[in-house]
Amino acid sequence: MKRIFVAYIAAISFATATLTARADATAAPAANASAPAAASSSADALKPAIDQDAWQFGLSVPLWAPQINGNATVGGRRENVNVSYNTLKDHLDSVFSVAIGARKGKFDFYGDVGYMKFSISDSHVGPDGQMHVNSWAGLKFLVSDAGMGYQLVKTESEHPFILEGTAGVRYWYVSSPVRFSDDLGNTLFAGSKTWNLVDPVLGFRGSQYFTRKLHLDFAGDGGGFNISHNTDWTWSAMGALTYDFCNCFSLSAGYKAVALDESENKSTGNNGVNLIFNGALVSLNFHW
Questions:
Q1: φ, ψ for residue 77 (rounded to 5)?
Q2: Average pLDDT score over the chain
Q3: Domain with 187 in it: what CATH number?
Q4: Average pLDDT over every residue of 2-22
């Protein structure tokens, strides 16, 4: 039972971490896990061949390999969660994600959507010590971000520094059916849970250029503010080196961390997670 419980929580955590990374990336000016458009806008802003008053667009494909540490509580039962990326990906059935962005002058706009589907199965001995109980858990997860940024600082030098402020909304949807059956296939228990969360998120992102093509990109945000009925707090931080191969393509590699502290009925501690996701990040960024 403990194994299926931890695996189930891990699957939910992995979906949250992976898709959050994509969403955050879309919001970052240069190379965040989910914001290709932002990455392109920062880099493009330094290229004299591009009209700074014209619209600039971007699309990115982020790849993130996080591990998860923390704890999760379901039905009042708390378990520690320490799961590697290799364990998480074994339960992944399908995944889709896309992030886009647009910039004009000092303003930029971003949006992204991601979808993941997981399934987990296990078999263990029942309470009587004889009957085997087969357990199965599924997960459909969708997260979407939308928001805007404004350029606060841009130094006029050979190696400029750029800083932007961001504000947006993050939407989470999770559907998680669970089923327990005996060796004959008879259902012992079946149920499902659906979450819908809408969180405001405030943050920043920036770039420090070392050459005209190589730059360090960073980003961070925080949100929740107890506005959504389930969310206490969520934050993320990212740092990556980006190389602009040409005006239309750049490659980013770095590290990203995301934390999620969420609970239902916090006074009784019935359901909730307190998790930190962190791991290596690679992002393919296209801009025009």
A1: -100, 125
A2: 76
A3: 2.40.128.100
A4: 47
